[in-house]
Amino acid sequence: MENIRYITDLSLPELDPFARLSEVQLAHYYEPDTGIFIAESPKVIERALNAGYEPLSLLLETKHIQGEAREVIACCGDIPVYTAEFDVLKKLTGFPLTRGVLCAMRRKPLPGIRELCAGAERIAVLENVMNPTNVGAIFRSAAALGMDAVLLTSGCSDPLYRRASRVSMGTVFQVPWTFFPKEEGAWPDTGMAVLREMGFKTAAMALRDDSISLEDPALRAEEKLAVVLGTEGDGLASETIADCDYTVRIHMARGVDSLNCAVAAGIAFWELGRRKN
After folding, report:
1. Which of 65, 51, 57 is nearest to 37 (CA)?
2. Where do the tRNA/rRNA methyltransferase SpoU type domain residues begin and end (predicted)?
3. HSE (side-chain half, CA atoms, 13 Å) at 115
4. Which end of the chain, N or C, is less surrounded by CB atoms within 10 Å?
């Protein structure tokens, strides 16, 4: 194949997106236009392609040209495919590649809140969830358990960061999502107002004495519900909890007082993602 390029020089500028640019730099690569991101593993790349993301170049282990990456290569047209053995790629990127394949892809413009949530009944709101592993795990649960969309505050890790999209198994390309604007007051003030205008009731996942049970039938009876989850460690801001219609807790045994935010999200999505009969 004419587009296969065997790596003999690790300093090639064409390899910068895979080796020398941070994810923040990648996100601003074409500024003021949309940037790029790196998708890792054939499954994640396949789901990104199916969602209409544009591939720019591939980096993969030579053995995968006729192996696990064969179908991905075929779907990517004539973009450059940079290849080398595992040890060379690890030296280049600084980490062992999952399933030996990376793809640089063009970002899409993000939709607005109203556009994203039109027709949605169950959405998740993430407040300052900073760990990309947790963001990815939350998206995987959201996809599997029937959430229609995910909204993120500006303090959250980007769902298109390599680790987040990999942990999500590519579900960040299946579940609609967007960020609240960065300006002051966008969350919770303006964001809550927009959700109310669209008919959503909000349920803050928080450990408060006045919290209702996750199994409370009033929650499932809501036609449109936003499940609001907070950052690792500190949880939701007091202001956010006060603004929500419900404060909800997961009952736990053996004196356990909290769960990892991604675990809590999965439990909440399982219970609240089910509509009333």
Report:
1. 57
2. 123-269
3. 9
4. C
DSSP string over 151-166: EE-TTSPPTTSHHHHH
Asked if omega into 188 is within 30° of 0 (cis), the reply is: yes
Q: Is 28 in contact with 39 (CB distance < 8 Å)?
A: no
Tell how many helices (H) and how many strands (E) occur in the chain.
12, 12
Tell me the C-alpha distance between 202 and 197, whole Å.
12
For residue 151, what are its two tokens? 């909204």
pLDDT averaged over the chain? 93
Which tokens is 16 given? Answer: 């910068």
Q: What is the pLDDT of residues 146-196, one digit of tens each?
A: 999 999 999 999 999 999 999 999 999 999 999 999 988 899 999 999 999
Residue linked to tokens 């002051």: 184
* Cβ atoms of 266 and 214 closer than 8 Å: no
Instruction: Look at residue 232 in the predicted model and tell me its pLDDT.
Output: 84
Q: In what order do the strands lie in the sheet with 4-6?
A: 4-6, 81-84, 54-61, 101-106, 36-40
Region of 199 on the Ramachandran plot (φ > 0 left; ψ -120 to 50 alpha; else beta):
left
Q: Please report the pLDDT score of residue 170 as a whole number.
A: 97
Query: Tokens at residue 248, please?
Result: 């909800």
73 membership: H or E segment, kind and range: helix 70-75
The answer to whether the bond into 96 is cis (omega within 30° of 0) is no
